[in-house]
Amino acid sequence: MQADSPHALIREMLETPGILRRFDSTQIEGWAAAVAGKRLLVTGEGSSRIFPAKNLIARALQTGHALNISTEGARQAAEYDLRGFNVLAGSNSGRTRELVSLCEKLAQDKIPCYAVTANAGSRLTEITTDSRILTCGAEQAVAASKSVVEHALLYQSLLGGNEWQQQGAAADGCAAVLAQTIPAGMLDTIAAAPVIYFSGRNNGIAEELTLKTNEIARRKSDYLEGTYALHGIEEVMRQDEVVILIDPFREEIEKYQKVLEQGTGIRIIAISSTDTPFDTIRIPALAGFDVYFQLLAGWNILVSVGLVCGIDIDKPERVRKVGNAI
Questions:
Q1: Which of 189, 222, 183, 186 has the alpha carbon at shortest distance from 206?
Q2: Shortest CA distance to 189 belongs to which of 279, 121, 259, 252?
Q3: Under CATH, to which class is 169-308 assigned?
Q4: Facing residues of 56 across strands?
Q5: Residue closest to 88 by CA, chosen among 116, 57, 120
Q6: Sign (positive or negative) of CA dihedral 98, 152, 252, 269
Q7: 26-159 matches 169-308 in fold
């Protein structure tokens, strides 16, 4: 990616390393104290929830943190008995209809709700217990990018941890990932695929990239959680489709080869910090920040596909920046 790109999406993605480098991991220590000992529900819609919420859950479980976290979309969350919960609510615009409706109900029920938004004057900041405004600035492209990363960092900081001592190294790693050139043969294969599958852990990465494939590369996509790719979907896969494995489980690699490569003839590409038998985009490894490298490598792929296909990656024909705004 080039900093002087005419595309707002690329310029915004390239701001991400700086956002990580400057991030203040202590800014919601008060929230961490407030939610301790209670159940925590993380809600929102689309990119404001998928990676930020699921990365928080996965990181808490990986580190043995005591915080009990779940996530749900706002409409479904409104059907739950949330007494005894604290709620984290995320929306870039601060006006997402589903979320505002839920937060108004939470306010009436006196359930603590903490909001993250990019809009200081939004309805969300008026009706929640406390709020934080993202510092990354407005995004001009339709597909959210830098805001997703800052949002995820903010949630992850609830857990504390020692990884924040490595922010500088993590920022350097992100910059290196974005500077990579996707090999021409790999790029041509992905660009020609009518369907792009993403397979990986339920930590928000593969799922978020599945969404971004629709917005940026304008390809049909599917998220295959965990080893879902090995349990039946091979029946309908075609040879001209592509599976992108995000940090594949080492124990399952041989099965991926047998079931997918040999069984269906489909092309497999991996994003990994270690070598794999597949065409692999190598990324750094750094505890606590691996997921950010994986996400940015996926962005790099999708932007490269969009450009080689002549797509206006800033302005999809149908997708709106604010899905159901008030």
A1: 222
A2: 279
A3: alpha beta
A4: none
A5: 116
A6: positive
A7: yes
Cα 132 to Cα 19, 89, 122, 298, 326, distances in angstroms: 15, 11, 12, 28, 20
The ranges assigned to domains in the chain are: 26-159, 169-308
Instruction: Tell which residue, 176, 140, 125, 143, has the closest CA to residue 20.
Output: 176
| Interval 250-260 mean pLDDT | 95
Give 320's pLDDT tier (boundaries 50, 70, 90): low
d(CA 60, CA 56): 6
Rounded distance between C-alpha atoms, residue 211 and residue 41, angstroms: 22
The amino acid sitting at 130 is D
pLDDT digits (tens, 9 = 90+) for 80-137: 999 999 999 999 999 999 999 999 999 999 999 999 999 998 999 999 999 999 999 9
Pairing of strands 279-282, 267-272: parallel
Domain at 26-159, CATH from 3.40.50.10490, 3.40.50.2300, 3.40.640.10, 3.40.50.150: 3.40.50.10490
Give strand ranges (E) for the chain: 39-44, 68-73, 85-90, 113-117, 130-133, 195-200, 220-225, 242-246, 267-272, 279-282
pTM above threshold 0.85: yes
